[in-house]
Design brief:
Blueprint lengths: L2 E5 L4 H12 L3 E6 L2 H14 L4 E6 L5 H14 L5 E4 L17 H22 L5 E5 L26 H24 L6 E5 L14 H7 L6 H13 L8 E4 L2 E3 L8 H15 L20
Parallel strand pairs: 1-2, 1-4, 2-3, 4-5, 5-6, 6-7
Antiparallel strand pairs: 7-8
């Protein structure tokens, strides 16, 4: 049976992708912060596909110890991953740091996914034709460069949410740079690595933005199912043969010059290795024994 791990799979486009892959016969592992929503999605999937194999693991991707616990659990239960869908994302209107001192959006959507991929890469490589799919965004255009110094000392300004929007854009730029560099490192393997922009989606990511802003953009947003379409395509469709690309509506997009710059991608990669204490990417030091955290 094919196996898919979806972060942020309890809501939004992640939930739609979980529903679709379960219907296609994948064993779907949903990893997300909210256990109540996670259990609700399991029930929804089982109602739609009674024979579906699906499980949930509660994780906060901004906490390295929780990411390692998730990876240890997966390694203890499965020997391959056909689709690693790194979908979790968030927007915080006030910039803050996690326990390791990194800006929270960057820590969650980049460093958390970087660490998870490190520990699961050998399982991805073990699949016959694996896919790694990362949810980026057109917001990477607004990052204003990678600005690695800012991930340790984020701005305290909340003026018109400019600093938070720029930090969100930086986290999405990091997602795209990660895809470019990982694809380069996996050249010659059977693994395809791609990022995509889902479009403006009517999802929970807007719950922290001002009501007036939501009223303005609301008419232009697409449904969660529409937003998940390209993600599902990249994770499952045999027609996908490209790697290291940024997609929108099932078509390759160029992205910004910074997002295509190999030197910037390598600088982010090296920073991430150092920040997470990883000596050799993809060579996990986790034992195969079951993790201590409870899973449902």
């Amino acid at each position: 049976m094919k196996t898919a791990l979806i972060t942020g799979g309890s809501a939004g486009i992640g939930k739609q992708t979980a529903l679709a892959l379960a219907a296609q016969g994948y064993h779907v592992i949903i990893a997300a912060r909210d256990a109540v929503k996670g259990q609700a999605v399991l029930a929804q999937i089982r109602a739609a596909s009674p024979s579906a194999q699906v499980s949930f693991w509660q994780v906060d991707l901004s906490v390295p110890e929780q990411v390692r616990a998730l990876a240890a659990h997966v390694r203890s239960q499965w020997d391959h991953i056909d689709a690693l869908v790194l979908n979790a994302g968030l927007f915080t209107p006030t910039l803050r740091t996690n326990a390791t001192g990194h800006e929270f959006m960057f820590a969650t959507t980049h460093l958390g996914h970087f660490l998870l991929t490190h520990h699961l890469l050998d399982l991805v490589k073990a699949a016959p034709a694996a896919r790694v799919v990362v949810t980026s965004s057109v917001a990477h255009f607004f990052a204003g460069g990678l600005g690695l110094s800012d991930v340790r000392q984020p701005s305290t300004s909340g003026f018109l949410l400019l600093a938070p929007f720029r930090a969100y854009g930086r986290s999405k730029l990091a997602n795209l740079l990660f895809v470019r560099e990982l694809a380069r490192k996996l050249e010659g393997t059977r693994v395809l690595v791609n990022a995509f922009h889902p479009g403006g989606v009517k999802s929970e990511i807007w719950r922290s933005t001002p009501g007036l802003f939501n009223a303005v953009i609301g008419p232009f947003l697409v449904s969660e199912r529409q937003g998940a379409n390209t993600q599902i395509y990249l994770a499952t469709h045999a027609a996908v043969t490209q790697t290291g690309q940024h997609w929108f509506k099932r078509r390759v997009e160029r992205g910004t010059p910074t997002s295509r710059d190999p030197a910037t991608a390598k600088a982010l990669w090296d920073y991430s290795l150092q920040a997470l204490g990883i000596p050799a990417f993809g060579q996990s030091d986790l034992a195969g024994a079951a993790a201590q955290q409870h899973s449902a």
